[in-house]
Amino acid sequence: MIDQDWMAEVRALVGKQYGRVYAWDKVNAPMIRHWSEIMGVMEKRTADGRMIAPPGMLQVWCMEGPVTNNYPPGSTTENPYEVVKLMDAQGFSSTVAVNSELTFDRDVVEGEDLYYTTRLDNVGEQKTTALGTGYFVTLIMDYYSIGAKSGDDEHVGQLLFRVFKFRPANAQTPAAAEAKSEEKPKAKRPMPGISDDNRFFWEGVKQGKLLIQHCKSCGELNHPPGPVCPHCHSFEWDTVQASGLGEVYSFVVMHYPEVPPFDHPNPIGLIELEEGTRLIAQLVGIKPEDVKIGQKVKVEFNTFNDGELTLPQFRPVA
Questions:
Q1: CA 207 to the chain's CA centroid
Q2: Based on the number of CB atoms within 10 Å of its own CB, is 12 exposed (0-12), middle (13-18) or buried (19 or more)?
Q3: Architecture of domain 199-316
Q4: What SS3 state is found at 29?
Q5: What are the per-10-residue average pLDDT scores of the chain (318 residues)?
Q6: Whole-Å CA distances, 270 to 248, 277, 313
Q7: Whole-prediction pTM value?
Q8: Homologous superfamily assigned to 3-168
């Protein structure tokens, strides 16, 4: 397909409206509460007691979840990203997000049913940037609340989403890319962010000690450490050395993305120390499928990055 033909096909799609994508669930209190806790947002309610969803949640309600394109029954089967597929076929295979702009007509509240529609708003002229040569593609998602009483659906917000589809500058052949990858130095583990609040912890780890912040006013142990005791708000604290014994309170196994130099699958545990506080650490010496809640573990201190980094990790004990 010559350039004029495929680009004419792309331009013909501008303005196309794609069908509805419904939310799996009504706007509901558990999701609002979890979002608010994570984002540090105060909960708000209407006069009749229904929870008000934070505006930033608007996009979340209609997401498909961890399974790609797993939308509720009744949702459109059209692909609103068909223009992106056309560009992929012409070698504009790289994508970088440029804008994500949410606007709101009103708050949505507990009990509402939502859906959105998509419109291909614009495909810009060809541009050359430091990343490469390509096109800016703009999509508009309009969000609606289904009118349960009046029958009229109400527009509640809009998402503008813009990406740059491009051919990478100085693209390499697979053989050249493989040769270059062989020249790369071995990946290192990221170094921790060290501040005046947690410096004692990392200095203790280097010495093979698991130090936990201890409030001198109320006696509570706090981890991760901070400048103020979250229980009594005292600024007075010292440290105690933990025994390093504990159990798996909870855990996750990270499969993707595969990030060097970490092992994959990568089991990460929330460890409850026998002193009563908890910390997050990698689990070693055990297959991910064998990790169990309540499993007894013990700390060990391992070095990485050619000795620059020491980390506390936990290994199961009999």
A1: 34
A2: exposed
A3: Beta Barrel (2.40)
A4: helix
A5: 74 94 95 90 92 93 85 91 90 88 94 96 91 92 84 91 88 57 74 90 94 94 92 93 94 84 89 93 92 94 91 93
A6: 6, 10, 11
A7: 0.55
A8: Hotdog Thioesterase (3.10.129.10)
